């Protein structure tokens, strides 16, 4: 076997992971520790502007991302990003600024520093599947998620926008499924893997979110999934937190736990429920996990 | 001392509006070597040319410069005029003072000065012109047609009807191409087979046509009028002369479950087969990959049952050399498939459409087979998955076409019309069914085309939704089509029983390899390039090779047939003479200077450069130099620009001439 190379990353959690998605942050740190992957939080990072900024002011949104990219330079290693929205924005900003000299000059003036255009921005999925590698991951698995049928949910941001160099195939990605298979789980083929859940309309237009997220939950259930796995705090918010409400509106019952990727992979590597923040999930995953003998 | 005549054209007002032509004439008249100069309103007109001829004779001119429009327009005209006055035509040059001067300038003073300089340059250049003799090459009056679809068939019949021999080479076991697969054809809804099969029979019976099916082009050598084409006749395993076409072998073959590609894999066929019942020739072929005899050595049933003893397992590929004078390329098209694309392909698949995993999502050609009376369902529209009649059917246009992000930006041209046709065929067969069409815009230019399209909406009640489909997915036994109606600005979802994709028209697989064998050029999509988009639409830049049909770009049947006849006409024009006259603007190698690096050979787009051995009197090899075959040279001058030792020069464009022009500035 080739000796393991040391993996170290600059970590950009994004606002959600420090607030509503604390369990994503916790499980990420724990899992990476378990896998011997170093994470050093980028000092003084701030919000990337996520969805609102680029709808209001392109220069602002590009500058926010550029500044974060610049801050990340202080830490050695590629930039690890957990949130799909942050990931999409940081990648897009890099791409846009590399393509347009004029915009780059404006942004550099705004942040008063050069923009690192070639630094590697990586989503956690990328790190697990490619940097660490599926083989290594498989070796780290001590408690395979046998018998768990998972609907891997990409949502709209993980592989979009389509013209930016992307994490995986824009239309038919498999990276989440690959990781989960390495963790011993079963994945289901379903129709709404990449539909939008309504993202941050959850506050301004909840009706939209309820309709869209309902379709997603419905399709996962129809495909026979036990649970859904996400890699984005926005998706999680809509599918998990709003699930009860959706059930009420449509008069159905899903009881479909929605896990973060790091929680499921964490379980497979033998981390306990307390280290993965499973108690922070709204739809209680314990009955399902007990039934499958996973806790 | 040269006696140059300069003729300045007004081009109506095109030139004289901005250029003071009289002053130009007066000024260049003083240049050394100019014996005569004048201006005239329309130099290209009959009196204009008369003036030129008269001046040549009366003034005993040795060279001529016509300052007028672009040489692309009238160089031939003036060279002919000069020739009829007794001078070598290549002693006449044109100075372009229209496109290069009057049209692009407003200031009369500046334009006039520039015109004087341009004409002055040409005066210096023409002094160095040499008398060039016209090149003649013999013509073999036989032609090769590659591809046995409607384009190849039409071209072959037209040429053969004029009494010239034609060699028709088709890759498949039968001629007929895609047109034989179609159901009815737009805009008149006549049955494709009914208008196609008689032509196929004509080809097979024509005394002047030599038909090779199940054959490919192996190798091409030579040049216009004198090509040597090697044809690989693949082993059919059935002797064409002995076979009577009775078909017993096919019924007795124990292998019956091979997907029928002619039916777009909807039906099955045996290992010994003819692609379809009306095939020409009606001789079966053994598909060796799927034949038990070839795979395991056992079986041999077909040989036993064949009365005339035509089945021959030992048959081998044959290589046949055919000398021809002209080549018509008619290799046709293929459809973009939404299956996952192989890695490295520049064209991406349609993941959102399930990468072709949903059985009732089919392409337009498959629908043709379903709708065709000779198809796998006998013309009934039935779902491939369960044989039920679809009551809601969705057609999606522009799948892959006009989709830059998928790697194809062109319009496939025929899909608007065939989708309209499909909605009609569907409604004629499923009276209580509803057809929906997602479209970007309807492009129906063509005789009776728009009326046809309107009919599909007004009479057959197809619902047209302007907008693209973002994705489809299977839900139970339905296919949910999610799209947008941009006319109303709403999202639409249709639960369909079947979906038909109008996928992009692409060139045949291997189009690039064939082009390399022929030495013709192709665009980034691998469609073959014509010599000039408007004025030479059926000729290749390589002399003697012509294009017909969809190998040059998406085309419908009427356009294909017209182009095929045009290509045939071009071939006949070529065959009208016994010797071929060619412009002598070709490259020549100065053997003393040539060092034999053959850079010129590498860059020559026409493949005109050959190797030539130089031997001394004892026959010992001294060196190998380049030799430009004048029959093949296209006169582009690339070799001249490349040659490091300046040993190859294009006649009519020698360094000496170019330097003279520059020095005149
Ligand atoms: S003609 Fe020039 S380029 Fe061609 S082989 Fe001779 S030296 Fe080389
Ligand atoms: S001019 Fe030279 S490069 Fe061009 S076709 Fe003739 S031989 Fe080939």
TrEMBL record, chain A:
Coiled coil: none annotated. It comes from the Bacteria. Transmembrane segments: none annotated. InterPro entries: Cys_rich_dom (IPR004017), HdrB/HdrD_reductase (IPR051278). Keywords: Oxidoreductase. Residues 9-90, 150-240 form the Cysteine-rich domain. This is Heterodisulfide reductase subunit B. It comes from Oryzomonas sagensis.
UniProtKB/TrEMBL annotation, chain B:
Keywords: 4Fe-4S, FAD, Flavoprotein, Iron, Iron-sulfur, Metal-binding, Oxidoreductase. Coiled coil: none annotated. This is CoB--CoM heterodisulfide reductase iron-sulfur subunit A family protein. It holds the Pfam family Fer4. It comes from the Bacteria. Gene3D superfamilies: 3.30.70.20, FAD/NAD(P)-binding domain (3.50.50.60), NAD(P)-binding Rossmann-like Domain (3.40.50.720). InterPro entries: 4Fe4S_Fe-S-bd (IPR017896), 4Fe4S_Fe_S_CS (IPR017900), FAD/NAD-bd_sf (IPR036188), HdrA-like (IPR039650). Its cofactor is FAD. Belongs to the HdrA family. Residues 234-263, 282-316, 585-614, 624-653 form the 4Fe-4S ferredoxin-type domain.
